[in-house]
Design goal:
447 residues; Tetrahydropterin Synthase, Chain A; five-stranded mixed β-sheet
């Protein structure tokens, strides 16, 4: 230390300036501001020293030993008009900025995040935690925008400054990922690597505005509280489903079994002795043909009763449909507003128009072979593809092997023949045996 007397005051001038901060400090201010043009400034590797005068960031020094003189502090020299050469004192702040990688900054959500499970529809509270790594790449920008008048800036300060940022991004990223991937909160830990990269791309542009590069961002865990009632119910249901899959039965069968068991316990039921005997001995284990048939008939009656309570019949094509459904899913018939269709067992021959019975094989007038619609019984042309009455699509034969195909088949399951193709003009889907496109009339190639 050296004292220079000016008038009646004394000023302690620093001979050597070096870093004395902690290992996890990003920015540290040297405690003394009284320096001179002969002062030695020592900057370690992975550090930068920044001179600040009057609240304005001036010169930046890299690693090494620097003598503060007019040759290497030109900006400072312009402000305070230092004389060329000599040993002149001046006042300035010296900041050390640590530019080494810091890869162990821990983060976590301070409170649970409410998210709706897109797969099962339940609401769950989840927490998340992990670590991230940063590096200061622009010392001036970092000091101006973040450090300001603080004396030190460490990793805990970084976490406090950006807690709102990563909490928001974590919540948005997890919610969006669940919705887009249609996965459950119970399955999210299988996608942690993808989520980590996704969150890094969201947070990186914001940190760059402060002179910070986000080197890495890792999600270590996404957890659901063990006492969450919704999650407990979901886990119980999934466990039950896994048990059913292993044993080889489903929920409806289990409910039927419960119903039969209840009937067996009902002493007023005529089926109670039979059901009780069957359940007591074990189904299929020495019960005998009579007991087995009785059990099967009882179960069938229960299922038929349950089906009739919720189903109705379309008055146009006789297909079964839910009672709450207005339009028939088979023929499109409006079961509420359309007039009722008269039902009879007589149809007309498509060739001569004579009345024929429902089960007639040949027309008694013209001898034409009757080709009835499998859905409503209407006589159709031999090569008809759609029923003119109910709209039923007739099964077709494969042009290669003559196998009977379903109406919407695209490939023959027997020989693999391609059954559909695209119109070269309008790109409409056509059958392989069509000669002209039904949409635009274009003649199909290869026909």
């Amino acid at each position: 230390m050296k004292f220079v007397v000016k008038g009646e005051s004394k000023m302690a001038l620093v001979e050597v300036i070096k870093y004395n901060g902690g290992h996890d400090v990003f920015a540290w201010k040297y405690p003394s501001e009284e320096i001179g043009t002969w002062t030695q400034l020592i900057v370690n590797e992975s550090q930068e020293a920044v001179l600040v005068k009057g609240g304005k960031v001036l010169d930046v020094f890299g690693s090494g030993r620097h003598t503060l003189d007019t040759a290497n502090i030109p900006l400072l020299n312009n402000i305070i008009n230092l004389p060329f050469g000599g040993r002149s004192p001046f006042t300035a702040e010296v900041w050390y900025v640590n530019k080494a990688y810091n890869l162990d900054i821990k983060w976590g959500t301070p409170s649970p995040i409410q998210i709706q499970d897109p797969k099962y529809g339940i609401f769950a509270s989840i927490r998340s935690n992990g670590i991230f790594g940063i590096q200061i790449v622009n010392s001036k920008m970092f000091l101006i925008k973040l450090v300001a008048t603080m004396s030190s800036f460490d990793s805990s300060t970084i976490k406090n400054y950006f807690r709102g940022l990563y909490t928001t991004k974590v919540k948005d990223s997890i919610s969006a990922y669940l919705v887009h991937k249609q996965i459950s909160v119970l399955e999210i830990n299988a996608y942690i690597d993808e989520l980590s990269q996704h969150m890094k791309t969201k947070i990186q542009p914001i940190l760059e505005e402060y002179g910070i590069e986000l080197v890495s961002f890792y999600v270590n865990e996404i957890s659901v509280p063990e006492d969450d009632t919704s999650v407990l119910k979901l886990k119980d249901a999934l466990s039950k489903r896994a048990e059913m899959d292993i044993i080889g039965y489903n929920y409806q069968q289990e409910r039927s079994f419960d119903t039969l068991e209840g009937a067996a316990k009902n002493s007023g039921s005529t089926a109670a002795p039979l059901m009780g005997g069957g359940l007591g001995l074990g189904m299929g284990l020495g019960m005998g043909k009579g007991v087995g048939n009785g059990f099967g008939n009882m179960a069938q009656e229960i299922n038929i009763s349950n089906t009739n309570a919720t189903q109705k019949e379309c008055s146009n094509c006789n297909k079964s449909m839910p009672k709450s459904q207005r339009f028939c899913g088979n023929c499109g018939f409006d079961t509420e507003n359309s007039p009722a269709i008269e039902k009879n067992d007589k149809f007309l021959c498509v060739e001569c128009g004579s009345i024929i019975g429902k089960d007639t094989k040949f027309c008694p007038e013209c001898g034409n072979k009757i080709n009835p619609c499998p859905n409503c019984g209407t006589d159709l042309k031999e090569n008809a593809k759609v029923c003119s009455k109910c709209g039923y699509e007739m099964p077709q034969n494969c042009p290669s092997c003559n196998f009977v195909l379903s109406p919407k088949a695209k490939f023959c399951p027997e020989c693999g023949q391609v059954l559909v193709k695209s119109c070269p003009k309008c790109n409409a889907v056509t059958q392989s045996n069509q000669k002209f496109c039904l949409e635009c009339g274009e003649k199909l190639q290869g026909e």
